């Protein structure tokens, strides 16, 4: 009852009532218009031109204006408008360039009144003057606007926008002589009908065509425009320069825009393609629609409010051949389905989190807003209508600041500058990048590069010490260390020889003060070391024959002399099989029932209080393992870095490894990594590094990034005409186009020129010239400046 009373007040004695309803049309509609009393609607299209009555429960067809056996193109309508002062007068814009008026008061079947054929191309829009009965305005694809006096048979004024096609024309609701026109080049022009020679004002409203415009019914200075850039903008035209005061971002090109009656901040829009819904926006809250009508199944082509003082009924036509009446109370409210929680990272790592106040009301550590709660005013002059307001969902915002050190991104920039991705052997690239990461205290990344070098490099090319050198082993780790205590040995332990030969010599050694070094160049026994005895072996594994029987005796009287063979260890020979750690050290084979008789001879070790470590060094893998053996591990590693946000590492490894790993990762994932890294590089203005990454990429979608927008159109510096792509000689004046003003030679490389006088030359020559003189080197007298 409250709603009906408000409607009755607005419309006087004739209150509008009804429900959401629709009817099927004979053909798709291009435009609709409503009569002054809001009881009839006209639907026009390429193959339809009918008038329907708006009854309480349904649409009723009243009149079909397409009459005759052979309907002409005058009935193919691109736009239609019903005069708001004269209820029997209609105007249509035809696709053949004709402007037709229709008089419904005629007694004959054919209601056509006047025909104007002055436009040369399709007429996109017709508009009656809001108060002048006989004044009609049209805008056409030919770029002209014409004003017609319906009492005459031709136009009285022609307006040339000196621009591309006109997409919309609208008379101002408050200024009698003013109308606005929108163009396909993105401009909006304001005209005075008394001055057809020149527009009063022009400004660029959108990037791309402006498809529609609409004056605010109450505020005389507000003009709403919609374009292909998916934006609706509200302009204040009362200032000297058009000022954009509101901007609404939609999801598709805006085809129609209509202010909502009796609601200052609301306007309705529909799209030209993709989106089939009709949206009502509150310009003060442009990020989410106030209401949505979702009934149409195809593109909505025309919208109009049923009455100029009724905000509750909206009429629409569509390409799905339906005509709808929407009740505002039946519209869906997107804000009711909106998520009140939000999460966002700042540029320097700060985290902002918004949630309902009810969820964090118990947070005692939260500081209250110093200004208090100002969402609700102290006094209300009248009770607000909740259906006409956004839902009151208040969120509390929490900001978590990161430490100053964590905000720094210097490591990213330095790494991007210092990393080497090509131009050197694989091992050198890995070593260099590992060094760079280590200097930046990124130890995990440095270790990753080192592991990649070990995995994918030829082991024979690794710079490691000799196979029998005992001491510092460079970068190869010690894989197996055996302690006598860990092997479960007592005071005596026996080591069996694996070969069938028996050795009779038992050598008694004093462990603890002897160290045996075996070098490739010279083999000698070194005694006197005070460190713990340590036996180390190179790439070749220790053979059983090389383990001599030893027996320790603490009594000096029983100690006997011994002799070593000519070589402390047999000369290195080719080993076909590289076994793992010697298993015969794990247990006493003499006690095993599986030990053969030839392995019965043992040697006894009588250890002293400090036991030795026998450390056997071997490579991480067999040299015969193929490179793709490590690909699954590397793939998981790259995914880990990418998930952690370090796409720089993922892309760098991807480029350095090349074909070794590229086939293991799908193209979409690679493209995502590349695009993310390139975006970061461009954010930090690392253009050269970004271009290098693009060039080294093998993804077709990435490689073409630096090939777009690379066309350079050059004009001849002599005749000022466009140059062809062949050579450096102009085809018209037959002179060299790019001559250096300093050395007078043809510039075939980097060319720099002054935008003031168009003279230029080699970059270095021009820079050197301008260091000592500010005048143009060509002698034209212009004061050139190099920036």
UniProtKB/TrEMBL annotation:
Keywords from the named record: Autophagy, Lysosome, Membrane, Metal-binding, Repeat, Transferase, Ubl conjugation pathway, WD repeat, Zinc, Zinc-finger
Any Pfam family the entry gives: WD40
Protein name (Swiss-Prot/TrEMBL): GATOR2 complex protein WDR24
Protein species of origin: Hucho hucho (huchen)
A single Gene Ontology CC term: GATOR2 complex
Highest classification ranks of the organism: Eukaryota, Metazoa, Chordata, Craniata, Vertebrata
Catalytic activity, reaction form: S-ubiquitinyl-[E2 ubiquitin-conjugating enzyme]-L-cysteine + [acceptor protein]-L-lysine = [E2 ubiquitin-conjugating enzyme]-L-cysteine + N(6)-ubiquitinyl-[acceptor protein]-L-lysine
Residue ranges that the Swiss-Prot or TrEMBL entry lists as coiled coil: none
This protein's pathway: Protein modification; protein ubiquitination
Location in or out of the cell: Lysosome membrane
Enzyme class (EC, first level): transferase
Biological process annotations from GO: autophagy; cellular response to amino acid starvation; positive regulation of macroautophagy; positive regulation of TORC1 signaling
Domain of life: Eukaryota
Biased amino acid composition, Basic and acidic residues: 493-508
Main location: membrane
Role summary: Catalytic component of the GATOR2 complex, a multiprotein complex that acts as an activator of the amino acid-sensing branch of the mTORC1 signaling pathway. The GATOR2 complex indirectly activates mTORC1 through the inhibition of the GATOR1 subcomplex. GATOR2 probably acts as an E3 ubiquitin-protein ligase toward GATOR1. In the presence of abundant amino acids, the GATOR2 complex mediates ubiquitination of the NPRL2 core component of the GATOR1 complex, leading to GATOR1 inactivation. In the absence of amino acids, GATOR2 is inhibited, activating the GATOR1 complex.
InterPro entries hit by this protein: WD40/YVTN_repeat-like_dom_sf (IPR015943), WD40_repeat_CS (IPR019775), WD40_repeat_dom_sf (IPR036322), WD40_rpt (IPR001680), WDR24 (IPR037590)
GO molecular function: ubiquitin protein ligase activity; zinc ion binding
Stretches for region Disordered: 488-530, 578-597
Residue ranges of WD repeats: 116-158, 203-245
């Amino acid at each position: 009852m409250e709603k009906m009373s408000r409607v009755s007040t607005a419309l006087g004695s004739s209150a509008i009532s009804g429900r959401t309803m629709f009817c099927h049309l004979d053909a798709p509609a291009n435009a609709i218009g409503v009569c002054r009393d809001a009881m009839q609607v006209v639907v026009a299209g390429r193959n339809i031109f009918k008038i329907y009555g708006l009854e309480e429960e349904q649409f009723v067809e009243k009149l079909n204006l397409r009459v005759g056996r052979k309907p002409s193109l005058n009935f193919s309508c691109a736009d239609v408008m019903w005069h708001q002062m004269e209820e029997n007068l209609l105007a249509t814009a035809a696709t053949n360039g004709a402007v037709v008026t229709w008089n419904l008061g005629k007694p004959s079947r054919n209601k056509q009144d006047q025909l104007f054929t002055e436009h040369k191309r399709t007429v996109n829009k017709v508009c009656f003057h809001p108060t002048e009965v006989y004044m009609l305005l049209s805008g056409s694809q030919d770029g002209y606007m014409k004003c017609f006096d319906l009492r005459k048979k031709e136009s009285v004024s022609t307006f040339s926008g000196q621009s591309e096609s006109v997409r919309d024309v609208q008379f101002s609701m408050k200024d009698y002589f003013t109308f606005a026109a929108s163009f396909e080049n993105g401009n909006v022009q304001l005209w005075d009908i008394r001055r057809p020679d020149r527009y009063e004002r022009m400004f660029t409203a959108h990037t791309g065509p402006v498809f529609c415009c609409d004056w605010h019914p109450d505020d005389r200075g507000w003009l709403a425009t919609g374009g292909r850039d998916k934006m609706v903008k509200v302009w204040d035209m009362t200032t000297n320069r058009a000022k954009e005061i509101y901007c609404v971002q939609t999801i598709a090109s805006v085809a129609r825009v209509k202010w909502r009656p009796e609601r200052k901040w609301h306007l309705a829009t529909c799209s030209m393609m993709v989106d089939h819904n009709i949206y009502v926006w509150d310009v003060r809250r442009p990020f989410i629609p106030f209401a949505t009508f979702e009934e149409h199944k195809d593109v909505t082509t025309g919208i109009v409010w049923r009455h100029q003082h009724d905000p509750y009924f909206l009429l629409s036509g569509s390409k799905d051949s339906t005509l709808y009446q929407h009740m505002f109370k039946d519209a869906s409210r997107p804000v009711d389905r909106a998520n009140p929680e939000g999460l966002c990272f700042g540029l320097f790592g700060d985290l902002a989190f918004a949630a309902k106040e009810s969820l964090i009301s118990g947070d005692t550590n939260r500081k209250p807003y110093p200004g208090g709660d100002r969402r609700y005013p102290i006094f209300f002059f009248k009770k607000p209508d909740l259906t006409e307001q956004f839902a009151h969902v208040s969120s509390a915002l929490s900001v978590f600041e990161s430490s100053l050190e964590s905000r720094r991104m210097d490591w990213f920039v330095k790494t991007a500058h210092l990393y080497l991705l090509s131009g050197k052997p694989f091992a050198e690239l890995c070593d260099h990048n590992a060094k760079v990461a280590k200097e930046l205290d990124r130890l995990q990344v440095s270790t990753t590069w080192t592991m990649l070098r070990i995995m994918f490099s030829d082991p024979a090319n690794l710079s490691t010490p000799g196979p029998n050198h005992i001491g510092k082993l460079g970068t190869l780790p010690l894989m197996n260390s055996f302690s006598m205590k860990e092997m479960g040995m007592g005071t005596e332990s026996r080591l069996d020889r694996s070969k069938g030969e028996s050795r009779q010599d038992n050598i008694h050694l004093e462990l603890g003060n002897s160290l045996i070094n075996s070098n490739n160049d010279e083999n000698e026994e070194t005694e006197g070391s005070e460190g713990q005895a340590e036996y180390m072996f190179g790439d070749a594994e220790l053979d059983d024959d090389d383990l001599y029987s030893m027996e320790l005796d603490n009594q000096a009287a029983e100690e006997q002399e011994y002799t070593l063979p000519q070589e402390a260890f047999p000369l290195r020979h080719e080993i076909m099989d590289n076994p793992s750690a010697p298993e015969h050290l794990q247990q006493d084979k003499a006690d095993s029932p599986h030990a053969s008789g030839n392995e019965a001879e043992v040697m006894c070790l009588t250890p002293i209080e400090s036991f030795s470590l026998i450390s056997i060094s071997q490579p991480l893998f067999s040299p015969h393992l193929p490179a793709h053996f490590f690909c699954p591990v590397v793939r998981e590693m790259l995914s880990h870095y990418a998930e952690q946000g370090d796409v720089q590492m993922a892309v760098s490894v991807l480029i350095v490894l090349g074909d070794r790993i590229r086939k293991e990762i799908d193209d979409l994932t690679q493209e995502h990594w590349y695009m993310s890294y390139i975006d970061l590089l461009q954010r930090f203005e690392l253009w050269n590094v970004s271009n290098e990454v693009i060039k080294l990429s093998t993804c077709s979608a990435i490689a073409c990034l630096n090939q777009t927008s690379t066309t350079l159109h050059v004009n001849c510096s002599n005749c000022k005409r466009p140059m062809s792509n062949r050579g450096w000689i102009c085809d018209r004046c037959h002179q060299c186009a790019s001559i250096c003003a300093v050395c007078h030679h043809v510039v075939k490389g980097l060319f720099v020129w002054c935008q003031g006088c168009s003279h230029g030359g080699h970059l270095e020559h021009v820079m050197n010239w301008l260091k000592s003189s500010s005048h143009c080197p060509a002698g034209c007298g212009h004061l050139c400046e190099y920036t």
